[in-house]
Specification:
- The chain is α+β, with helices and mostly antiparallel strands.
- The protein has 3 domains: about 140 residues, no CATH class; about 400 residues, 3-Layer(aba) Sandwich (Rossmann fold); about 100 residues, Immunoglobulins (Immunoglobulin-like).
- The chain is built from 17 helices and 40 strands.
């Protein structure tokens, strides 16, 4: 109360003069919870600030209508994606809008450092005194004076407020952090300094650590035993557990001409750990294209751990997909927001149909999420890009900023970036795999909500305080008015079972990565792992569909509503994500705020999702008729065969839904559920067992699939004797 009273007095005596009465405040443009900080007076008016103004998108009603139409199969705009230039022409700010804002900022004495219509941003510099006067705000300082923030929303004259949606840079009370659970790093630091042969071995016994002399590296199996810690999961284990192997056998590995997986980050990386990961786990080398969105590499820093994890596990889940790494640099960023630049770069580049973000922002004003970030994610969706965002590693707890990082607040909250309606929020699970005598995972085993307790991490989930419930969540989710997360989940615990990554050895034990010292194998967890792995699964769907998916959730929720088993979604029904004093949410049947719709049975989910999308225009079924003559009553004929062919040079794989027929004809069901590549085929047998002499009642065999000519028919006739 004393602090609030002091702040009130400071505001009453603020140096900021009021603008004209017609001035408009930008709602939600000041830091939340200033009462968390120790008030130390008004900020020094001479203090320099680096700021940015984000411009509004135009025609918001038309934008939302087009988003809905792109996901509506009955609309002529269904899956008709925009290019960045088309998005800018229809919904971006105009050159006149940009000029209006630039002229006003210059008139206030600010120095314009850059202006971009594509980014909808004007970067500028000035002092606390200039900003206080221009925006009619009081900028306070806290603690020892290093922290500062505007106590109220900035004001703008009507002509500028008509084109501007937010001002960044009036505070430094925010942060961004990777959603990587690193509690295992310290435990493994002692082993990581030794050679790999002294720290790893093939898991021969899942209960007891072997004697040190027996510890040897595996050359073939995907799983390892790390002395004193237990078994961990490698790529082949993941592929078996989540049933990707049937897809891989068909050639569905995320390859094809439909692009790449985009990974965003804020550190450069050394290539050695990635090469070691691929060699150790028998993965093909993958091309990774670095995109320096701020012009210059930021060099290697502690975020390299996140970068290596994301690149390695996106590749593990979709080993046929190229990768692009979008790298921000705060030193050369126009608005000193390297992560935002990286996200914006992945969208504006428009090269990758799938993007994964394993970070969370915290401490930002609400309109940073609802306007600045949301505008970027709107563009991604309209361009057909599918964005996955880690739901967070702090369970049901919200995040606060401190010392340049995000920490659990102890009160309920969510990662608001993950809660954006145009992205898919990925939560976390834990499980105890079934290992064989060679230490490899052999099958799926039940999962529960990831919760290793504070400070080890738990899967994020809960209700947004910013975004309302989107239409796709109107049914099947809690009866609230909020956007609920997560949407889906995947492996995240670093202990049960933990996933193996190769890291830059210099990162251990203090995260002070330098790129020197070679590579080391280590187990990690976090929704940072779950998000790029889900992006890999989505990239396989893109290959099957032969086209982009756009916003993932509308189809996901429609599919889940038909039944999770049929959709290929493992329903997570146990566990709770309570964390650091924040009351958690229980998992239960169907959708829940701890695991969403659950995890993927990829062998079922990929064709089920692909079947909801436009399939190939045509399919060939040969022959069109089968005739069985003079078959003895009580006997079954030799088989005759029907072949379903997906014609070559069609971009889309064919998904077979059902094959129905009856009477005296027995139809093999081996092609039901099959997913057939362009130029591929599936053959099934038909047998005839007459129940009486003479002609049997003819049967029309129906084949349903996702081709434009579905259903196809085959006429069946026969006679008995």
């Amino acid at each position: 109360m004393v602090m609030l009273a002091a702040m009130t007095l400071a505001l009453a005596g603020s140096v900021a003069p009021a603008l004209a009465q017609s001035a408009i405040r930008l709602s939600g443009n000041h830091p939340p919870r200033l009462d968390r900080y120790v008030y130390a007076g008004l900020a020094d008016t001479a203090r320099p600030l680096t700021m940015a103004m984000t411009l509004k998108l135009r025609n918001p009603a038309a934008l939302d209508r087009l988003l809905a139409e792109q996901q509506d199969p009955s609309s002529p705009n269904y899956h008709r994606w925009l290019t960045p230039s088309q998005f800018a022409a229809q919904f971006g700010p105009t050159a006149a809008d940009l000029q209006t804002a630039e002229d006003w900022l210059a008139a206030q004495g600010f120095t314009i450092t850059s202006a971009s219509l594509a980014r909808r941003m004007i970067a500028f510099t000035g002092t606390v005194g200039q900003a206080s006067q221009a925006f009619n705000v009081s900028i306070l300082k806290f603690g020892g004076g290093d922290l500062y923030g505007n106590a109220d929303d900035p004001e703008l004259p009507p002509q500028v407020a008509a084109v501007a949606e937010s001002i960044q840079g009036l505070d430094n009370l925010h942060a961004a952090s990777p959603m990587l659970s690193r509690s295992a790093l310290q435990r493994l630091a002692a082993s990581s300094g030794k050679s790999e042969a002294n720290s790893l071995q093939l898991a021969e016994n899942t209960d007891d650590a072997p004697p040190l002399a027996a510890i040897l590296p595996s050359q073939h199996a995907p799983d390892y035993f790390v002395k004193g810690l237990g078994n961990f999961v490698g790529p082949a284990d993941f592929q078996v557990f989540y049933n990707e192997t049937p897809l891989f056998k068909l050639g569905l590995k995320g390859s094809g001409t439909a692009g790449c997986i985009g990974i965003v980050g804020v550190s450069d990386y050394v290539a050695g750990p990635i090469a070691a990961f691929n060699a150790r786990f028998h993965l093909p080398g993958q091309p990774i294209k670095k995109i320096l969105v701020d012009g210059i590499s930021p060099g290697i820093n502690g975020a390299e751990i996140e970068t290596l994890l994301d690149l390695e596990w996106a590749h593990a889940a979709a080993p046929g997909s190229p990768l692009r790494y979008y790298m921000g640099n705060s030193a050369t960023s126009p608005d000193q927001n390297d992560l935002l630049d990286a996200i914006n770069g992945a969208v504006s580049d428009n090269a990758c149909p799938v993007i994964s973000i394993s970070y969370s922002f915290c401490g930002y004003p609400s309109n940073f999420y609802s306007s600045t970030l949301d505008g970027i994610f709107h563009e991604a969706a309209l361009q057909g890009q599918t964005v996955f965002v880690a739901a967070g590693d702090d369970g049901a707890s919200g995040l606060v900023a401190a010392n340049g990082s995000c920490f659990p607040s102890g009160a309920r909250g969510v990662s608001e970036m993950a809660a954006d309606p145009n992205v898919t929020a990925v939560g976390g699970t834990e499980f105890f795999p079934a290992y064989n005598s060679r230490g490899a995972v052999t099958q799926y085993s039940p999962e529960q909500v990831w919760n290793n307790g504070f400070p080890n991490g738990a899967g994020g989930g809960g209700q947004s305080r910013i975004f309302p419930k989107p239409p796709y969540q109107d049914a099947g989710t809690p009866a609230d008015v909020a956007r609920d997360i997560p949407d889906v989940s995947l492996i995240a615990s670093e202990f049960e079972p933990g996933a193996l990554v190769y890291l830059d050895k210099s990162c251990l034990p203090s995260d002070n990565c330098t790129g020197k010292g070679g590579s080391t194998l280590i187990a990690v967890g976090g929704t940072s792992l779950a998000s790029p792995a889900w992006a890999g699964i989505a990239r396989i769907i893109v290959q099957a569909a032969g086209a982009r998916l756009g916003a993932f959730n509308p189809t996901l929720y429609n599919l889940a509503a038909l039944g999770q088993d049929e959709a290929g979604l493992h329903d997570i029904t146990s566990g709770n994500n309570g964390y650091d004093g924040a009351v958690g949410y229980d998992a239960g049947p169907g959708y829940d705020l701890a695991s969403g719709w659950g995890t993927a049975d990829a062998g079922v989910f990929v064709p089920a999702y692909a079947s909801q999308l436009p399939g190939p225009p045509t399919v060939n079924v040969r022959p069109a008729a089968l005739t069985f003559n003079n078959v003895l009553v009580g006997r079954t004929s030799l088989p005759k065969f029907v072949t379903i062919t997906n014609p070559p040079r069609q971009p889309t794989w064919l998904v077979i839904g059902s094959i129905t027929g009856g009477g005296d004809f027995n139809v093999a069901q081996n092609c039901v559920g099959a997913i057939i590549r362009p130029g591929g085929s599936c053959r099934f047998a038909v047998r005839y067992a007459p129940s009486a002499p003479g002609p049997s009642a003819p049967v029309t065999l129906q084949i349903t699939d996702d081709a434009g000519t579905s259903p196809q028919t085959v006429a069946l006739t026969g006679s008995g004797r």
